[in-house]
Structures are given as structure tokens and as C-alpha cells.
Amino acid sequence: MRIVPLEIACDESGSEGEKLIGGQTGVFAHAGVRLSPEEAAACLVELRRRIRSPAVEYKANHLLRTKHRRVLEWFLGPRGPVHGRAHVYLVDKKRLLADELRALVGREVRPDDELLAAFNDVLRSRNRRVPAAGSFYAMVGDTAELRAKVAEARDAKVLDPLVPAILRAVECWSEGGEQVFLVHDEQPSLKGERLALIESSPGLAGVKFVDSRTDPRVQAADFLVGVARRIAEDELNGNGDEVLTGLLAPYVDSASLWD
Fold first, then answer.
1. Res. 170 pLDDT band, cuts 50 70 90
2. Are 8 and 32 in contact (CB under 8 A)?
3. DSSP codes of every residue in 40-54
4. Which of the two ends of the chain, N or C, has the fewest CB atoms closer than 10 A to its terminal CB?
5. Which domain holds residue 141?
6. 179 within 8 A of 5, measured Cβ to Cβ
7. 109: left (phi > 0), else alpha (psi -120 to 50), else beta?
8. Residue 184 and residue 87 in one domain
9. Are 79 and 254 in contact (CB under 8 A)?
């Protein structure tokens, strides 16, 4: 008997590659939803009915407007279309950078913004003599061992949370022993070794990249991941909304790099 894999539609929000500090966002989010095309299409129709915007394409920011607060609470709540059928992985970018710094240095360091910015620049640059390198090594100590570790981390592109998030999604959705087929929003950065790593993931039956506008399931994931990132970012910045944070909590993966 041919076993049909579990199809999960995915999207991300806040992806800026390896730029983890000084970018547009402080949080990276990745979401997967388990909806049939018909269920996802019905979800979009209902969102349009409730929001009543003339926009051709609806995005998460429609839900995040104050006047649509009740629609957002419905979408995330127990009667919403994705409740119990979705997974969100969150990453506090600054925390990811600080954790990687501690691991490379091998001791506790105080990860202030100046040090983290220099470290981020050193790991992102293909030029090993990037100006930030001097200040970075001056702050943490310049040793041949540390330079070797930094070079290895640079080559491995350890900072971009996108691939780990996708691998975690596969792991999460295949926990019941099912094979998972991912339908993911187009990601130009996922090619070569990075794509090969994803495709070799245990539990993955395959992955297909699509334009989110052509697949209602990915559009539903786009709504979820967009509001999740904004709610998490508000929380991170001390402007959290207790109700929305509580509604998001059931979706958040316990492996998230998030408090």
C-alpha cells in the first residue's frame, strides 16, 4: 500500500539571512500549517469576509490592524481555522547570536550590542580582514584557536535560522512516524548544500517551493507566521499584549530560541 505523506505548507517572516543585529526585525519566525487546499481556501474567504478590505492580496498586516483585533483573536483562537493544526518556530535573533558567540569563545561573555554587531559582521563577511574583526578580537581576545573556530563557523553559515527552522518543522510534523512533504514559499537562498541538507532530513518525503499567491495553504501559513513574528517582537521589546501572547502560545514550538 502506498503511504501518502503528510503535506505541510510553510512560510517564514523576518528572514534576513545571517544579519541578526541591526536589521529590520529582531525575531525570525517559521510556521507550518496542516490544511487541505479546500480548507485553506475557505480560511482565506472567511478572512476576507471579516476584514472587508479592497486589497487584492491580503497579508498579515491586515490582521494586525487595531480595527481587526477581533478577527485576529478569532484566527488564533480555539475556533479559528489553524488552531491545533499549526506549528510556529521562533528565534530571538540577538539571543541566537549571543549563544553562538559564547560557544565559540568558550566562556561567558557579556554580549553587549557593540560586541554582537562586530561578531555578526565578522561571521557574515567573506572578507576575513573585515574592519570589524579588529575590534571583535580586541574585545574577546585574539588567539589562533578562536580565529580557526570563527573561520569554520563562517564557512558553515551557522547564523541563518532558516534551514534549522525547516529541519525542525520536519522533525516536529514527523514525530508520529509519518513522512512529511513540505510545500514552502519560494526561497532563493535554499539551493546547493543548504537544499541538500533539507532534502536529506529523516522524515522528509519531499519539498516543493511555490509562489505563495498560487497556494492558499501557504497563504494561510503566511498569515500565521506574520502575526506570530509581530506578537513575539512586541513581547521582546516590552510592548507585549498578554491576550495575543496567550493565544499564540499553543502554536509555539518548545524548541524555539525564545522565552
1. very high
2. yes
3. HHHHHHHHHHHH---
4. N
5. 94-156
6. yes
7. beta
8. yes
9. no
- pLDDT at 132 > cutoff 80: no
Q: What is the pLDDT of residue 156?
A: 81
Please indicate, yes or no, whether residues 147 and 70 belong to a single structural domain of this protein. no
For residues 122 and 247, membership in a common domain is answered with: no
Q: Which three cell numbers stand for residue 122?
A: 565578522
Q: Are residues 72 and 172 in the same domain?
A: yes
Higher pLDDT, 128 or 113: 113
Task: Give the chain's domain count.
Answer: 2
SS3 per residue for 105-118 = HCCCCCCCHHHHHH
> Is the residue at 122 inside a domain?
yes
Quick: pLDDT tens for 8-45. Answer: 999 999 999 999 999 999 999 999 999 999 999 999 99
For the range 116-119, what are the long-range contacts, defined as Cβ-Cβ under 8 Å and sequence gap of 24 or more?
116/20, 116/21, 117/21, 117/22
* Rounded CA separation 164/149 (Å): 20
Residues 184 and 231 in one domain: yes
**Interstrand relation of 27-33 and 6-13 (parallel, antiparallel or unpaired):** antiparallel
pTM of the model: 0.94
Instruction: Report phi then psi at 39, rounded to 5.
Output: -65, -40
State residue 115's pLDDT score.
92
